[in-house]
Design brief:
The complex is a heterodimer of chains A (about 325) and B (about 290). Chain A is mainly α and about 325 residues long. Chain A contains 13 helices and no strands. Chain A is globular, with a radius of gyration of 24 Å. The chains are: A mainly alpha (about 325), B mainly alpha (about 290).
Chain lengths: ~325, ~290
């Protein structure tokens, strides 16, 4: 039990460190670069037409206050943290006067839903197939699967999503390729809406799964093929233990632990992929929000999405880390 | 070195396929030296021509020859990946070797920072960089930023090797014969981790090129210098698929997929070659499993 407390404290510290370094990174990027976001926003506004100098000055003043760019560097730094603590990124410039936090809160469920479902499915399926492929090394169908996994795994999310888009958008229009739900459908818990949401999520989820599957498959296969030659497995085989039981409770169970750690470590990369996939399929999550914010020059929104992403991903990693002891008895009882 | 290469080519199918794919793509990039057109010029040939003898990959809606433009794009994209990989190798080598050799609190601090960089989602941070830098976001700036963000995973790998090297006999001998830490790391430990560094270089190139392609497809880089992502960006801008100019998209996409699979296969087969158990299994001498 003491060991678990120590483990818990370590994970929590790591979580705080990730958030701290991540937020500082965004601070440095936005404050220490030679380019002033306020002047950029003003340039974007004034390029549409002539504005009086007084109005520009007023706008400059209010934008400086809005972005917390008043006072010395120390005060700015404190103000930056205070705003993040209460998730206040000011109003969005592109959807004025909706607050940035409202826009993000609206987009977040879409991203979390898509990401959680796709990641969990990918992880389970990849590990199951990888485990089988590592155990039954001579099966032709599993070898064929390995070739496909090797071919798909290294291709980045954007390319896979784009190829799927071309296939199902232009060549064989079967599934909806844009948006999170159909037009003219009443939102809420009615069957048509739920069905429409599911249908619209197939392609984004599929592209996330196609890229992700290979990594778990290959990782699990090599882990299992190493474990298979361990003495205790050979012993179990000689003792006539049922093969399925050897694979399930002796081999896969052990190989699964590094894969859980692997899931925690690769969550950031999976999130990157989800952002891009959302953009390709016009899915109404934070990814699409981030990209459109950049196109619209919406400083507060870009900063808000970046910060929330860092906090969100590190929270998810923390959750996986805290679940880990449930799977590994050595952490629980030692 | 040469015998290793020969062995890999002879016994490892993955390495052979990977070498062919990467070789083809690298060959394409070398052809850029003979290009009759400058990569920045537009409307030098008739636009929207399908693939023909004169223009093997067709021409774009901006009046560029897809084949010759692609040679420049591949060259820039490859060079980008190599620069990022080299820079980040230096970082991950120094941090990994020092962390593994020193141990103690230095190791704990370095690895905490290391794990942080593994976990943080980099894409929003890169987008934030672009948002702030805008037009100043050049090819080199992006390469340096990516190198500063992309060392962590391999540093952890190198550290795990350095941990075991620390307790080896020759390290003790080196310490007792008065070598400084820097000398031990550079002369004694570095050669041991070099094979794995080569393998990680390929994976790192895949990672950085993948992010670069993604960023430029969205228009978040210097889109005027020809890269593969930039080609896809311009093709999308001109709605090439709707207009039926499929060759503008198909050839860059196919070549980048070839490059990714090639680099990945090289990395996988090198990793396998480094591990003596799997190498023996492949050679078929039946030495254990």
């Amino acid at each position: 039990m003491r060991f678990y407390a120590k483990y818990f404290a370590q994970r929590l510290l790591q979580f705080l460190l990730v958030v701290f370094i991540g937020i500082n990174l965004t601070y440095v990027i936005t404050h220490a670069t030679p380019i002033d976001p306020v002047e950029q926003s003003i340039a974007a506004v004034t390029s549409f037409g002539n504005t009086s100098p007084e109005a520009i000055n007023m706008m400059r003043q209010s934008l400086r206050e809005l972005y917390g760019l008043t006072g010395g560097p120390y005060e700015q730094y404190i103000a930056f943290w205070r705003r993040i603590a209460v998730a206040d990124f000011g109003p969005s410039l592109s959807a004025f006067p909706t607050p940035v936090s409202t826009l993000i809160a609206r987009a977040l469920p879409w991203t979390i839903g898509l990401l959680a479902t796709a990641t969990l499915l990918t992880w389970l399926l990849g590990n199951l197939l990888g485990g089988l492929a590592g155990y039954y090394q001579d099966k032709a169908s599993l070898k064929f699967l390995a070739v496909i996994a090797m071919g798909l795994h290294p291709v980045p999310y954007y390319i896979v999503a784009f190829v799927l888009l071309v296939m199902f958008g232009y060549l064989w229009p079967l599934l909806p390729i844009a948006g999170g739900y159909g037009m003219n459908i009443e939102q809420g818990l009615n069957p048509t809406f739920v069905l429409s949401v599911l249908k619209h999520s197939i392609l984004p989820a599929l592209s996330l799964m196609l890229v992700g599957l290979g990594g778990w498959f290959l990782g699990m296969r090599s882990l299992v093929s190493n474990i298979v030659s361990e003495d205790y497995v050979v012993y179990a085989e000689l003792a006539g233990v049922d093969q399925r039981r050897i694979l399930g409770s002796y081999v896969m169970r052990n190989a699964l632990l590094p894969q859980v750690t692997g899931l925690a470590l690769s969550l950031g990369a999976i999130f990157n992929g989800a952002i891009i996939t959302e953009q390709v399929f016009g899915y109404p999550g934070v990814g699409s929000l981030l990209v459109s914010a950049v196109y619209a020059g919406d400083y507060g929104l870009v900063l808000g999405v970046a910060t929330i992403s860092i906090i969100g991903v590190s929270t998810a990693v923390l959750i996986i880390d805290l679940v880990y002891p449930l799977l590994d008895p050595r952490v629980r009882t030692a | 070195m040469l015998t290793t290469l020969r062995d890999l080519l002879r016994y490892n199918v993955e390495f052979r396929i990977g070498a062919i794919l990467v070789g083809l793509v690298a060959g394409m990039s070398a052809l850029s030296l003979f290009s009759p057109y400058s990569p920045i010029d537009t409307f030098v040939v008739a636009p929207d021509m399908p693939p023909s003898l004169a223009h093997p990959f067709g021409t774009t809606s901006r009046g560029q020859d897809v084949f010759w433009h692609l040679t420049f794009a591949i060259r820039n994209t490859l060079a980008f990946g190599i620069v990022v990989a080299l820079l980040s190798r230096i970082l991950s080598l120094v941090i990994g070797l020092v962390s593994g050799y020193k141990g103690g609190w230095i190791d704990r601090v370095l690895m905490s920072i290391n794990d942080t960089f593994i976990v943080i989602p980099l894409f929003p941070i890169l987008v934030l960089f672009y948002f702030v830098l805008r037009d100043r976001m050049s090819w080199t700036t992006l390469a340096v930023i990516m190198a500063l963000l992309g060392w962590a995973y391999d540093a952890r790998l190198i550290r795990s090797l350095a941990l075991s090297l620390r307790t080896r006999e020759f390290t003790h001998t080196a310490v007792f014969s008065g070598m400084s830490t820097r000398q031990i790391l550079a002369r004694e430990h570095l050669p041991f981790v070099m094979p794995i560094v080569f393998a990680t270089t390929m994976n790192n190139m895949n990672w950085s090129i993948g992010l670069e392609v993604t960023l430029s497809v969205l228009g978040f880089t210097d889109i005027n210098s020809p890269t593969i992502g930039g080609m896809i960006y311009w093709a999308n801008q001109h709605t090439a698929l709707v207009a039926g100019v499929w060759w503008w998209l198909a050839f860059p996409v196919v070549s980048i997929i070839g490059l990714f699979i090639g680099l990945f296969l090289l990395a996988v087969s090198m990793n396998e070659h480094i591990d003596p158990r799997s190498r023996l299994r492949r050679l078929g001498s039946g030495g254990g499993s």
